[in-house]
Amino acid sequence: MGRAAAPGDRRGWGNTAEDSAVRFLEARGWRVRARNWTCRYGELDVVAERDEFVCFVEVRMRSSTVCGEPVDTVSFAKQRRVVKAAMHYLFQYDVRERMVRFDVISVVGRGAHATVEHIPGAFDAGM
Predict the structure, then answer these.
(1) CB neighbours of residue 71 within 10 Å
(2) pLDDT tens-digit series, residues 59-110
């Protein structure tokens, strides 16, 4: 999938975390529609679908939980940006008659020892 990230390579580690998230979702029957989809409102890390759901997934990574859980880094402002970008995505691709959900995938650690946790419905569009 992605290339190995060098120490201090923040974008590289982000790609590695997203690779882990995508593998996690696909192993559970999700079909990935898009990765790193951007528009004027922001970026969507992963857009996936399964059954009646279209899911917008924010991927967060930390090397450890000493300073807290990765999910705790998704601020209200970030949630707002993700929701706006998601609405733009739904409009642009004319996605209708699907349930929409906003999830977070938390990746703690690096490489083979990383722990991946999926938090379904981590936040909602009701701002």
Answers:
(1) 17
(2) 998 765 556 676 777 899 999 999 999 999 999 999 988 999 999 999 988 7
The first and second tokens of residue 17, run together, are: 């975390």
CA pair distance 97, 54, nearest whole angstrom: 10
Q: What is the value of pTM for the model shown?
A: 0.84
Which amino acid makes up residue 104?
Answer: V
> Is the dihedral angle over the CA atoms 33, 1, 11, 72 positive or is it negative?
positive
Domains of the chain, start order: 10-123 (3.40.1350.10)
In 2-126, alpha helices (H): 10-27, 76-92
Q: Where are the alpha helices (DSSP H) in the chain?
A: 10-27, 76-92
